[in-house]
Write a structure and sequence with these properties.
This protein is α+β, with helices and mostly antiparallel strands and about 350 residues long. It is built from ten helices and six strands, in the order αααββααβαβαβααβα. The chain is about 60% helix and about 10% strand. The longest helix has about 70 residues.
Length: about 350
Amino acid sequence: MSSCLLAAACALGLASACVSQKQYDSIRTELDATQSELEERNASLAAEQKRAGRAHVEFDALKLSLRNEQEKVKEWELRLLALHKEMASALKDKARLKASVDELAAALVEAQRRKDEGESRVREFKLVLDRLRALMTAGKLKVRVVDGRVVVVLPSDVLFSPGSAALSPEGTAAITSVATALAGLPGRRFQVEGHTDATPIRTKQFPSNWELASARALHVLRAMLGAGMPPARVSAASYGATRPVSPNTTAEGRALNRRIDITLVPDLSTLPGMEELKRTAPGGAQETLANEEEEPAPAEEAESAAVPSRKKDAPRGAKKKAAEAAEEPADAASQEDAP
């Protein structure tokens, strides 16, 4: 690019004596535009490098956590070895020592299980990064770890027009790519979460941010189903403006809050004590397993809309209302900075 600029500058200097002022100005304008384009591309490259740096920081944090778990395993192994030596010299207290060994062995198994889970989470996080790297590089999404869960963050401004829940062609393409990548993660479930900024919206289609966030989450969910995501592995939820990631006092902060989060739902069945909980719960483990896919999100946290895994048609009135909410444009009287 710099050689092109130099050539253009030379041509400008040689031709300045024999061209009109109008031609000179035109060539000069083109040179300035080329210089501006070069600066913009350099700025974009710097931003991508910064985002890649943040991803590396998150990955290093996960590696540090894994290393800590490995240190704990080594500590338990050393303690177990010491107890075995003590058992050899304390036969009279065999029963008490055996109980201690059994306890430590269980702790070692638990530590190993946690170590394996940590390694699995690291592998899964790297796999998600690899599958979505092209979209991350293009600035269309980010992958974060929030409260121990892997979250794919897509800015609403990339997916939707202001005040609308209809996916743009660019947004549909992005969701299709994300769904295709995530569907390849075996056995994982996903929740599509709609978020808005704190700017109120009051239209016929969307009386509040709850309805707007819900409609956007459902449109993303349907796009994922269309891309091949199994219905039983995905659900949708609306959080409205209740979970901001940035202050709503600036345009930049509001833009960050207008987003779609696709969260990898953790497998709670592996938590300590879960088997005991299933045995003591009313109805037993079988009932818990039968109702697992239909369990709604807590009402105080989200207004959720789950997608049924059985092939049932929604009532005609509900379909018509959803179609109107999705296709009818937002009220022009809504604010400029629509959620």
